[in-house]
Amino acid sequence: MTATQTKFPIDLGAYQPLKLDPNVKTLTDEQRATLKANIQLMRDAIIFFTATGAARGVGGHTGGPYDTAPEVAILDAFFRGSPDHFVPIFFDEAGHRVATQYLMAALYGDLPAEQLVRYREAHAKLPGHPELGLTPGVKFSSGRLGHMWSYINGVAIANSPKVVCCLGSDGSQQEGNDAEAARFAVAQNLNVKLFIDDNDVTIAGHPSDYLPGFSVAQTLKGHGLTVLEGDGEDIDDLYGRMCEAITATGPVAVVNSRKMAVGIEGIEGSTHGHDVIPVDAALTYLKARGQDAAVSFLEGIEKPKNPNTYLGSGDKLGSNRNVFGQTVAEILSGMDADTRKKSVLCVDSDLEGSCGLAYIREAAPEIYVSGGIMERSNFSAAAGFGMETGKQGIFGTFSAFLEMCISEITMARLNYSNVLCHFSHSGIDDMADNTCHFGLNNMFADNGLDDGYETRLYFPADASQMTAVVNKVFGDPGLRFVFSTRSKVPNILDSDGNDFFGKNYEFTPGKDEVIREGTAGYVVSFGESLYRALDAVERLKQEGIDVGLINKPTLNVVDEEMMTKLGNSPMVLVVEAFNRRTGLGSRFGSWLLERGFSPKFAFLGTHEEGCGGLWEQFPHQGIDSDGIMAKVKELAS
């Protein structure tokens, strides 16, 4: 029986569609009881189907959609009661709260409830952020955190005088986009209503700790909004404030205080509630709620394993995103405290656990700043610290957010800043968050002029090379961007079966590396694409096609010696997970032609929106071993 044929083990038919008029600002006993029952049903369902993501290893976010169930239930009643008064979309600026969108799509009959148990699974069309046109019933794409408010300002203008509603969060409100959106909404007196979950929890900590003095409510008041504060778990207080917001003219923010994941044992109020609920915690919750069928379903899920094996790679899996931080921590530990304090500043953007920066904080807390969800400001602070010779900033975030920092990168270059940047979650591997979180356009960081201050882009292939790269470039001047993936990567082996990047390996910036020789031409790759390309090369050799493999760990520097070698070969194929339109392949052919070379040439890269899941993203884009082999055979024919 397929997942879509499996009965959803929580009865969503128990949801009682309710019609409420925001002009009537108090609830009857019957309305209150119905709302509370709906909220509890929604929370049970969210706990259950997000936990299926935990059980399958694809992750997901539970606390945010669980938190905002009261606001969503009330908005649903408003939309049903006064459909002509609203743009009836549950816009949400915290896109990782996608479970809200999927649940409401199921309740409205647009999405089979049975499909919810495939949350974030590959090819299930339920990725980690909502994507318009992909999932039935989803009515917008949220993009990355804090990008929605500016967008719905335009929606409000287009649909005036209807009310446009957006679910917000204290994390999203840290983004600079929202400050601009607030001022615009006030200046234009837009009928935009924000419902902000102020739970004092983000991925890496508590805003009250790392941003002392910051207040969501006071900030929005300063921009000119009417702000209505209260307890998000007091249904009558919440309902009254939401009615007041809806019936008022102009932009209003309803700020709802509550603990993250309130009522969930072991998670309430902690950062663990931000991500997907662990299966054991979900089982405890569901058992207490008498959801026995949901318990049985969860207990029966087996985590899928990648069936692929890769020739040319070992069995040592390394997490490069953590190795970056571990290596920097070792370097810092070799300095005396006074030297560290004077010469290095590390600024995190609420992703220290994901980017490996937590190791730096633990090793050298005196040089560490938890900067919050403010990527542009945090990068610039690191760059400003690194303006003087002998000083450098360290900065880290996800590669998808690099695009947000382009202007700041230019300013850092113009000011001759020294910054070591770690952009993790590059490419597409293990990215169930899907398209908006793909780290595809990393080459944008190399946006200076030929005579500008030096910029270098590095993408190590395994953990040993990551260690070598960071050790080599740590003290270099200029802007250094080091990329890593969310996924772990295996160790690369030489043709004798030994670690290619072993104890005697020394990284040389700007130099390409021959992983395998070949007479039929070469595949050029890097990062997490390299071990897949190596597998393809080994299999091709077994079939009698003697193709070689080149690792290009420095992405934006032409190795003239290697270019001559490649140019004189019969064929060159660039393989990468970057955007086919903006990645290495889009440049490499020009580099060959500029030098008078004309081998057969092609390049493979990410070119379609994602499919969810983990390793499944690579075959979906045709850049797995099979896709590489097919392209080589096409070129060699």
TrEMBL record:
Matching entries from InterPro entries are given as: PDH/Transketolase (IPR051157), THDP-binding (IPR029061), Transketo_C/PFOR_II (IPR009014), Transketolase-like_Pyr-bd (IPR005475), Transketolase_C (IPR033248), Transketolase_N (IPR005474)
Domain Transketolase-like pyrimidine-binding stretches: 318-491
Query: Out of the domains of life, which is the source?
Result: Bacteria
Q: Which cofactor does it need?
A: Mg(2+); Mn(2+); thiamine diphosphate
Q: Which Pfam families match?
A: Transketolase_C, Transketolase_N
Q: Which SMART domains match?
A: Transket_pyr (SM00861)
So what family is this one in? Belongs to the transketolase family.
**Name this protein carries in UniProt:** Transketolase
Q: Which organism is it from?
A: Phormidium yuhuli AB48
